[in-house]
TrEMBL record, chains A, B, C, D:
Stretch forming the signal peptide: none
InterPro entries the UniProt entry points to: KFase/CYL (IPR007325), KFase_sf (IPR037175)
GO biological process: L-tryptophan catabolic process to kynurenine
Pfam families given in the database record: Cyclase
Molecular function via GO: arylformamidase activity
Protein name, as recorded: Cyclase
Source domain of life: Bacteria
């Protein structure tokens, strides 16, 4: 079996099934960490990697990489993905008016939220995507995620794992220095990733968490959400699957809705083929809808692109994803 | 005006209003960080404090301090506080069966959650509690938190702040070495806190985040939730308000539902008087329902009780609290 | 005090406050049913009215007047009004696969919904709208509806009331016989209502529930939702307030989002002025987003426009509105 | 094949599977209304039945048969069934204080609900229960109810159907005239149903909706919810399956959580065996958690036990059940 090409020009744009399956077979990590594994490539993070990451803290500055969890967000209801609905069960207005019935002048405000776990900045759990009925590590999808949730690889298993060295690859800045924004539909290639890393002077290796900035989120801040949630976007080419595998990175995140390029790179109906390769086969944890703009400015100013990244998910039992507020500690 | 006593025996158990107001006036920080402040004592965290904290990372071990966000949690519906309701909008069972209608063999699972923001491990935002109609920094409660949420001090303002030195005070272990658990109703005093710190060999100062372990959560793991959410509990005495102010700590968290001792220390109706002093008056950010058990074991084994704590809230616009997964990086 | 005009041409389009207050004062029903009243004009329905209505059942046909409660509905998130989010907690796919763990071959499906109470076909409760801080019957708004809900006039009080004679006024059909649809922005006047009633051969009186069909909903079925939820629409003119009062109808409903004409009839900022007159002052229960198309066809075919209407709200404690499935029994 | 016994003493209490399957095969209605049927026994309601029902309206009195949809309800979280969480997105307190930003003195209150569709008074849809992987009319469960909802027999199909003659059988009153309440665990038999009907002077036949009052709900009103949701209860014996089939009733409802007797009538693990027979096999629509107490009083006083029943479900697309407010019109 030949190694699938890392060049988008080599893709057979009529045959997503074959292009996906070739990469699934070539880069599959099933069994690599034992039959019971629930972490996939997060296993690449070890304590020495974290010590290396902690040593990157040089200023004490913290930058949040989360977008706002806001009712005026990008979601438009596709597959019941709404924006968060945040409501108050007690308010200051009621407290001030004396409506609450509490003693000695205490008043309170409380709140409730209803939201898709993938409505804003998030990690995809390993149970989020399946390949031909199979989930991560070669399990049957119906044995893993039922209507009771992810019974095997729920995001709670990663609760104390995702702290590592983060590396920002500002591909938007490197390829489009005048705007720092890639066009929608731009497929980011292995060559793009490597050129950006070289320009930044960083190397990428086992256990790192790679953050790829396309600049699309900055565009939405200027032009409005438009079709940010699910529409055209710059993003990783299917052909990066081999790089995502061979670098042994622990996780990857982008500032776009869906990590990979959209429209997808086929002339026939296709949907998120890179997800299909990397989540169930490589076992790669993917972050989406991150806000990488302030971090990019900071990294550019100090000309240093790695940092301590702390991005633990909420341990929601059985969840296939989690809202997060990742922080870079510089 | 004399300084309110730090001795619980001095409390007038018939007069919570006076005991609260004396401490509110004595320890109020309004205006300390300007009229527009939205962070309160989180302002005590500065970059040098974070550098100090990052230097505490010696093993690379990460410990999650979150309880499970689980439908079988402690909430019983008081004030509409339910446990999280986590539901799937797509499942592996459907994917495996071919029910989803996606091309080239990709399948997916997606999920939704509805939950009170204070249902499990969380930060209280500064808009969570009011004192006689007033919110943090001297604002009228009805100008701050309406049914649109916290318009001024929403938790989103702390999104890139809460990374600092964490210090664990395992009061349960120090006072009850045989069980490591305080009894419900045990009021933790300034003397208890200081004795524990001395025994641990740690000092506490400006910008620290103090984690107080009572052992009650460990008890629920053994005996069931019972009335963990709102019932009797060990916790801080109202008389610790001065210590919470003078130490200039940035935040404090406990392994109990409500941070302060319950029943509250009065013989007449009272409700969370220490909250009333510390949130709107001191501007102190409080964490509740943390899981400090694994961290306590680790600290005891290495005989070292401080660490890098990363505990950024989700930036939910206008929220008066946030579910979190705080991590200690040792 | 002169009676406010029933002619839209007489409105001072610069002064909504005066036009509202003149009608509020002229048509106010406060105290009419005692100080403790929670039903307003629903009091006009009595048992003899219902006997009259039951006698209208001549064919036994039932027509639902509800729109679909569907994730692909008209809501776009304004003031957190989303479409319903309906999710499954158990599915047939899981049951068929044997994932559920039940004995003797039983399987089940269960579901959950999150929705604004006004997302689709609904009644507005009497606590839904206030006039200068006052609620129905002269109560202070903050004494009635707090963040705990409507403590006084919650929709549950109407649980066994709203069955009466229904009368359909198909104003769209009468004024635009070729399309049966009024244009957006068309203000329906008293003259329009009376001409339609005359054409239909119906009289309207005490205790009736009047259904006004504009045809806008039929248009959305053909052209898409567009701005159905909150955008331009045909609807009742502010000048119908006197008619709504003097007819002593029990309730009124339309096939539009907001019952009254939009844009509202002023050249300065205005918002739902007829609501402000009729809900808190007249005590009129209003229905919105009803589907009147099949009923209109049936009434036209049989040339008979009244029927038994059964439209009880869900008794949600403290709700200021309720989703409903009203049925006409012909 | 012999007809399964209508006598509980004949049940093999060791073998629920056989007892269920015998009745499933004996009473199955698959194909009776064509291959595409989505209504089951609701097809027994025809227009002449409704004319008969309308003629029963003699006083004009309306009685709601719904329990309160209230946060203090019976649900305890089993299978994520919580009580409704009703929250306000706008309040009267805010309106009164001028916090809302609306013009000319209008203010508003709005609300949101999150609830299981079966949390309170409801209809079970035909997709709610499966028998050995099969749904109503012989369809595979996984072809009917996926995580997208009930794609075939969703409750919306019954939106304009469920108006018919209602007949109350107050079995509690008939068997226990002193308390009007059956004991928990009391299995209601065919003999009990027939004796009650005879005592009431009513006959039951095709298209009727039968309401069976056990008195358990009245007990909860006096003693508290306790285990109303899922615990021991009086209810129909599995042996009533033949009667439910042969009477050709359209639907049946009870004042209990689960319609059938609990504990179920077996000495080995069993769960709702009568559901398994009647929903997927007979195609019977079942109502649960109805409030039949006021209706029972009224029927007893007038000594007349039938009435017009209007109980249309909310047309929630794809729902396997619906909250309802059924009304009896006497």
């Amino acid at each position: 079996m030949s190694v699938p090409s890392a060049n988008p020009a080599d893709l057979d744009r009529q045959d997503p099934a074959s292009e996906v399956s070739a990469r699934a077979e070539a880069f599959r990590n099933w069994g690599r960490w034992g039959d019971d594994d629930v972490l996939g490539t997060l296993n690449f993070i070890d304590e020495s990697k974290r010590l290396e990451a902690a040593a990157l803290v040089r200023s004490g500055r913290v930058i949040s990489l989360a977008q706002a969890f806001d009712t005026n967000g990008p979601q438009k209801g596709w597959r019941r993905r709404t924006n968060p609905v945040h409501t108050m069960t007690d308010t200051g207005t009621d407290a001030e008016r004396g409506n609450q019935g509490f003693p000695h002048g205490i008043g309170g405000a409380d709140d409730v939220i209803a939201m898709p776990l993938q409505c804003s900045t998030q990690w995809d759990g390993l149970g989020h995507i399946f390949d031909r009925g199979m989930a991560w590590n070669g399990r049957r999808a119906g044995d893993v995620v039922t209507s009771d949730g992810d019974l095997v690889t729920g995001i709670e298993h990663a609760a104390s794992v995702i702290v590592s060295r983060g590396v920002l690859l500002d591909v938007g800045r490197h390829l489009r220095p005048e705007t720092c924004e890639l066009d929608d539909g731009h497929p980011i290639t292995v060559a793009d990733l490597e050129a950006t890393a070289a320009a930044h002077g960083v190397t990428i290796g086992r256990g790192d968490i790679v953050l790829v900035r396309t600049g699309q989120y900055a565009r939405t801040r200027r032009d409005g959400w438009n079709d940010y949630a699910g529409g055209p976007a710059p993003g990783l080419s299917l052909t990066t699957a081999g790089w995502l595998h061979s670098t042994e990175i622990a996780a990857i995140a982008t500032d776009t809705w869906g990590f990979e390029v959209r429209p997808n790179e086929f002339d026939v109906p296709a949907f998120q083929p890179l997800h299909q390769v990397v989540i169930p086969n490589i076992g790669l944890t993917i972050g989406e809808m991150w806000n990488l703009d302030e971090l990019a400015e900071a990294c550019a100013q100090r000309d240093s692109w790695d940092f301590l990244l702390s991005a633990a998910p909420l341990p929601i039992t059985g969840a296939v994803g989690s809202p997060i507020n990742p922080v870079a500690i510089l």
